[in-house]
Structures are given as structure tokens and as C-alpha cells.
Amino acid sequence: MRDNPQYALTDAHEVAELVRAHPWCRIVSHVPGSGLVASHYPMLVDEDADGLTLLSHVGRPDERLHRLGTGELLVIAEGPHGYISPSWYGLSPAVPTWNFTAAHLTGTPEILGDDENLEVLARLVAHFEGEVPQPQLLTGANAEYAERIVAGTVGFRMRVDRIVAKRKLSQDKPAAVRERIIRALREPGPYANPALADDMAAHAGETA
To answer: In DSSP terms, which residues pair with 166 in a beta bridge?
Structure first.
């Protein structure tokens, strides 16, 4: 990721919150003989761990494709992002840009045994199913089914050793310009992006 110190996101707690809010992540490995390998999986923050630690699983045979556990894994998390038109600035000259929040999280995964993997799967399902009226969990009546399907997945825990993260939300612009951008993102149009507008408003006090 390009080094822009003015946009650097260095607080591990804020990075953890990014993963909690946007758990669908990319995982990337460099595999000798194969080159780069990428997959997409949901991540949980291990709330019981010291330091930022991620929990997830891959479906077989992705553990072999990534050679999971034998080397570093890059996990990429993203928040809301989108195009920012210079026509919204009220300034001239100006150029377009892209606002975003992203984190590159690197560590070496620890492969989990079947019991821990089942626990992580149950936590993942409970995390997302908790939002629906009639949650279908991997416990109770579904426990036997869960034990049958766990063999098709490989769970892992990854303590994050290196964080490179950036929050670029027009902090370099005057407050009045940022307000115009937020309004424009909330209006109907080809680049309407209420989620990005909300993120900009939530961090309105930050400056580059």
C-alpha cells in the first residue's frame, strides 16, 4: 500500500473494529511454484486473545492451495470506498480521487484441530445468524450436522504480526469541502454512496 503518513491508521483497536464491521476479507499467500494465491472468507476478531488475532476457516482444498500454516498470510480488510468527483469540491483546479479505508494484516496462521475448528464455525454462524429473526445455529438440533460438515473445512487462528492500514477520507480538504462531499455522496446519482458518507461523517474531526 502506498505510504501516505497523513492517512495512516495505526491504532490496532480501530483496525479490529474495521474487521468487525466488514468481516468479508481477502486472503493472499505466496506459494513457491504457484505464485500468488487469493481467496475470500469471513473473519472474526478473537476477543479473548492478547493483541489483534483473527479467526476463520477455509473450505478444502484451499488449505493446500495456500499451504496454510507454512508461511505468512496476508488478510485484506476494507471499509466503505468510492469515487470522489472534483465537481463536488467547489474549488478549482481539482482532480478526482477515491476515498477508502483498508488494512493489510500479516501473520502466520495456526491450523486448528477439529474441535476448535467446529467452535470457530459455530461462532461464525452465530455472529451472522444473530441478526435474523429465526437464527439457524450449528448447535442444538444442528450439532450433529455440524460435526459431519466440519471435515470439509480447515479452521485457523492468526495473530497479526504486521499492520499496514490507511483511512483516506478527504482529511486534506477544508471542513466545508468535506461537508459538500458528504452531501453529494448521500444524493441520488451514479456515485451515490451513503455508507462512505457515513464513514466520512463519523471521522469528520480528523485532519491530514
So the answer is: 8, 102
Cell of 141: 438440533
Please name the CATH architecture into which domain 5-172 falls.
Roll (2.30)
Segment 44-83, tens digit of pLDDT: 999 999 999 999 999 999 999 999 999 999 999 999 999 9
For the chain, the structural domain boundaries read 5-172
* Model confidence pTM above 0.90: yes
The C-alpha atoms of residue 43 and residue 58 are separated, in whole angstroms, by 10
The span from the CA of 96 to the CA of 27, in Å, is 29
Report the b/e string of 14-24 with b at 16+ CB within 10 A. ebbebbeebbe
Whole-number Å distance between alpha carbons of 161 and 107: 5
